[in-house]
Amino acid sequence: MKILLTNDDGIYAPGLYKLAKELEKYHEVVIAAPDDQRSACGHSITITRPLIVKKVKLEGINSKAYSIDGTPADCVRTSVEKLIEGKIDMVVSGINKGVNLGTDVIYSGTVSAAIEASVYNIPSIAVSSEFQGDKDNYEIAAKTAVEIISMAKDNYISDDVVLNINVPLVDKEDIKGIKACKIGNRTYNNVFVESKDEEGNLIYEIMGSVNDKDEEDTDVSYFKQGYITITPLHYDLTNYKIIDRVKQWF
Fold first, then answer.
1. Helix 14-23 vs helix 138-154: crossing angle, to nearest 10
2. Sorted alphabetically, which Gene3D superfamilies does this protein's record hold (predicted)?
């Protein structure tokens, strides 16, 4: 398959490197990623200035690679419209440094890049890995992504589906399996630490902790139990539960 690989951690991120090494063993890969860190940028795109695209050489990677001074969604759009000739069979976004569980998907640049692919009717996968300090699980996450790509291809995954994958930071033998599940509820207890600069302007630094609701059959719950989670997503935000009720207003 021809795969577009992107991320939100930047073109030189170790997670992207590890995934590229694994993917190009089996597929034709083109890499297009932000020139710098773009975490939590959501689904933003650049419209107020031109985008700068540079060819780069990633040491030990055979695939073509481009850095783009925009967002993950910009990278997908630019690749589809200008950089890659012919059909792209799948877009893979990651490996993100840190998980994208529950409502994290709203803010995630990693997931948004995958969703942008689905806007272009290209199947996509977002891959994220838990980390602590210098420890990560990129090796397992990369091999899991390749395995799931093969499954998705064999089962004719729809072109409007995004598969959101999260890998816990546990040894391979301690991973309990893979759970397909819905997204859970993950919010943050934000603390705004106030200070002032030399000119007296207020500065607010956001700090805080995760506040998970441990609902059953969700990615948040299964992830904490040691499972790799996979959740099918779709960009249609329509609330079908109440659409008929809203129609009655008019």
1. 40
2. Survival protein SurE-like phosphatase/nucleotidase (3.40.1210.10)
